[in-house]
Amino acid sequence: MKDLLFSEFQSTVSESMVRHKSVLDGMTKLQEAIARVQRAMAKSVTTCGCIQIQAEKHPIPEGLSLSQLRDLLDSDIRGELCDQCRETVEAEIGSSLFYLTALMNSLDLSLYDCLLKEHKRIRALGVYNVG
Hints:
Blueprint: H1 2-16, H2 23-48, E1 51-53, H3 66-72, E2 77-79, H4 83-106, H5 111-125
Antiparallel strand pairs: 1-2
């Protein structure tokens, strides 16, 4: 059932692609879409202020297991996206997914298969996944 959703999304993207059909166009549109995600997140910090990023070097005590280390570290984000920023970030991520899927279509790759393979790889590597 879930694979049908991925397949339908991939098919809809394929049907929607009239412009930017070239793989080069697709690559640059994907890069642009990802930059817009980053810009939307930055504006959430600098313009709206609903979230803050408080990043610093994380001291890592000796003798911790990797699972303990995972619990110790965080994303450096403080606060939560407001409704408007959440909507903007979600839309930009959606656009990124669209162009990623369009690129996959150009290469005759399955979004669902790619996700399954990545899931298996992450599960196999566990905390050793360097991603």
